[in-house]
Structures are given as structure tokens and as C-alpha cells.
Amino acid sequence: MNLLILRRLLPVAILLGGLAVFLLLGLERYFSYDLLCRHQVTLTQWVARHALISAAVFVLAYALVVAFSLPVAMVVTPVAGFLFGTWMGAGLSVIGATLGSIAVFLAARTAFRDLFRARAGPALARFEAGFQRNDFSYLLFLRLVPVFPFWLINIVPALLGMRLDRYALATMIGIVPAAIVYASVGAGLGIVIGRGERPDLGIIFEWRILLPLLGLAALSLVPVVYTYLRKPKATP
Predict the structure, then answer these.
(1) pLDDT at residue 71, as a whole number
(2) Is residue 81 part of a domain?
(3) Which of 91, 138, 148, 186 shows its CA 20 to 30 Å from the CA of 41?
(4) pTM of the prediction?
């Protein structure tokens, strides 16, 4: 039994260990804007010479950033826009982030799903059932609204029994708008660097960007509202 528990906890232990190593070694210094400015020419030239390899390396790196929940994910997508352009950078970011999210989802489901179900009371069980009826819409809403912690959204659906294929599709669709916004910021980094300025990564919280995202999030809940309205009313 102890061996079985250890095997279930191993994926989570690996992911948490990666985060701990990253923080203890101070590796976030390699994801700084200043470092990008110093090596921009080298990076752009290497990407130009090795387009396919650089794209694959970026996707893998982004997947690891998300899987280990490293506190640098927000700066990675702008770098993708800088190196690959807005559309390709956004596409590679979506692929990498989705793969990393799947790793967290599977690790959380393996380690904690059975424990969560065993400890869940009747009220929580009803909440779980309600979530599963419209899990795609709920997850899409959470992905589209840029205020919920990304790592938390990776874990909760696993605990609530969401299917992997629905989770992956909702994640991929839900992160597209923000990826395009950040990649477009990155695509203009060359001009920003030339001016000696810093990019505005808070642009997503400006109303001209935030309102359309909130509108898309509201649309994602339409199936939930429709299901609720069609539910037969209990007779007294």
C-alpha cells in the first residue's frame, strides 16, 4: 500500500521538486528583460537559422515552465512573439502551455483524485456533479478571465473528475486570446528595446483588452444558462 501511494505521489513530487530547484537556484534571473536585451541579436539569428529546432525547443521549454508552475510564464509568451512573430508565437505558446497544463492535470488526478473523492462530503459531491455537467463551459470561462491563477485551474478540474480530452480542448481554446495579446506585445519588443523602454505586460488588464475577454467568457457560459433554463421546475 505504501509503495502504491508513493507511486501516485511521484509525479506531483517531481513537479514540486522542479519548482523548488528553480526557486532555490534563483533561475528566474535567466528570464529577465535585461538578459533578453543583451542577447536579442544572438537569439534572433539562431531562430532564423534553425526555425524548426527553435520552435520545438520553445514548445518544450514552455511546457516545462507550466508543468513546474514556474513564476515566469507571463514573460515567455512575449518572448515567443519577439522571436517568432505574433501568430506563430501565439500558436507555439498555446501548444506549450496546453502540454504543460496536461502534465499538471494528470499528476494531480493520479495523486489526489481518489483522496479527494473519499474526503468529499455530500455538498461537495453535488458540486462535483454540477461541474461535470458543464465542465467544458466552466473551464473555458476560467481560462478566458485573466484573474484566476493558472496553476490552480490546472488542478481543480482533475479533482472534479473532468475528462482529459475535454480539459485539453477547453484549455487550448481558452488561452488563445491572451496568448495573442502577449505575443503581439512581444512582436513589438524590437522597437521598445530600441527606445530603451520596457514592455507593458499589464496591457491585458486595460479595458480595451479586458472587456472583449470578459465578453468571450460570458459567451462561454451560455450553454450553462441554457441548461439551467431548460431544467424542469420542481412542482410544489
Answers:
(1) 87
(2) yes
(3) 91
(4) 0.84
